[in-house]
Structure formats: C-alpha cells, structure tokens
Specification:
With about 220 residues, the protein is mainly α. Helix 1 packs antiparallel against helix 4, helix 2 runs antiparallel to helix 9 and helix 5 packs across helix 8. The protein is globular, with a radius of gyration of 19 Å. It is about 80% helix and about 0% strand. The chain has ten helices and no strands.
C-alpha cells in the first residue's frame, strides 16, 4: 500500500470517527455541564494511553519537554469540545457536523498569515463548494434564512468553537518538533485538557455529576 493511499484511508477513518462523535455527543449534551463531560472524555482517553506511555522509557523521557507546548495546544482543543457540547443543547448533530466542514477553510486562512502558505486555485474552489454545501444544510435550503444569516444559538456557538479547532490545528503544526513522539504529544494534550477542565470546574464551582443515574439510563435507551 502506498503512503498516499494509506494517508487517504486514515483520513476516511478519522472522518467516520468525527462524524460519529457528533451523534454521540448530542445524546450526552444537556445532561451534565459541558466542562464536566469534556473532562470525563479527557480522563478516559488519558487513562487508555497511560500504560503505553509509561511502559516505554523513551516516551517517559519526552513527557516533561512536551508539557508546556501541549498545554497551549490542549487549551484550544478543550475550548472546541466545550463549544461542541454547549452547541448541541440548541442545535442538531447534523448542523454541527456540517459546520465542522468549514474547519479546513478557516485553518487555511490562518496558515496564510502564520506560515505564509499559498493556497492553490483548486483548493479555493473546493473550499467554496464546501461553504455552499454547509450553508444549504444549516439554512435548510431557505434563501431568506441565508440572506438574513438567521442562525440558531447552537450554530453560532459552534461557529466560534470551530475557530478553536482551527487554532488547535495551527498550534499542532507550530509547536511540533522533529524529535517529538506523536503518541506522547497526544497524551500530553489530553493531560493538559484534564488540567484546563479541572481548573474550570474549580473556578466556576461546577459539580462533576458523573454518577448521575439518568446519564447511563439515557445512554442505555439511545444505544
């Protein structure tokens, strides 16, 4: 299998996972605070990677040098998920999944100014088609809604959230070093998310509520 084909397959798999996350997230939104549920996601993901990281000595050595950069990366990553869960209290998984397609375009615009990257005419065309498709879904094919830019609260919140996702992508590239271990950077980003979310819970006095019975009852009914 060629490297290019392998990359495309990975992107397709990632797309399915991202798409599924919007559906699952909608089932959980509105039950507990978005900050608390984001913290839960980060904790579970961190614990899943923890044995792999600590089993490998080379990975362990990379933890401290990666920490400060991962904290910056995880800040924007955390904001995105908070925005996602909050948005899904007011809008649909279809809308958020569709609006998410604008992330590449916003990331490309940031890249022009930060990395001085040039974008081809073909890329602009693809982005334009993506924006048209997004608008058709979000505005339900209603020209009057489109012209008046009538968005619901959830769509507006998620539009702000995808700016955080774009900045997360920019930070991943900007702070990445050639000698980084990808799995360590991912782990420290998740760990940084745990720290950010924990601080937010303390500052805003938000209860965890992870053991609420109706969370698991709703999950059982829906899935």
């Amino acid at each position: 299998m060629s490297k290019e084909l392998n990359s495309h397959l990975i992107i397709i798999l990632a797309t399915f996972l991202v798409g599924g996350s919007f559906v699952v997230s909608q089932k959980l939104s509105g039950i507990i605070d978005p900050i608390s549920i984001t913290l839960l996601r980060f904790v579970i993901a961190s614990l899943a990677l923890l044995p792999i990281i600590f089993y490998n000595q080379n990975y362990r050595k990379k933890l401290i040098p990666t920490f400060s950069r991962a904290m910056i990366i995880s800040f924007f990553y955390s904001l995105f998920f908070i925005g996602l869960f909050k948005a899904l209290e007011y809008t649909t998984a279809l809308n958020t999944g569709t609006i998410f397609t604008l992330v590449p375009f916003i990331t490309a615009v940031f890249s022009i100014f930060i990395f001085k990257q040039k974008i081809s005419l073909m890329s602009y065309l693809v982005y334009f088609i993506g924006i048209i498709g997004t608008s058709m879904v979000v505005f339900r094919g209603n020209l009057e809604l489109f012209l008046s830019l009538s968005l619901n609260n959830g769509d507006i919140i998620f539009l702000l959230a995808i700016f955080s996702m774009a900045l997360y992508s920019i930070c991943m590239k900007y702070f990445h070093k050639d000698d980084d271990e990808l799995i360590v950077l991912v782990f420290m980003t998740l760990f940084g998310g745990v720290i950010w979310m924990s601080l937010a819970l303390i500052i805003f006095d938000i209860p965890l509520n992870w053991l609420l019975g109706n969370i698991w009852e709703k999950c059982d009914k829906e899935f």
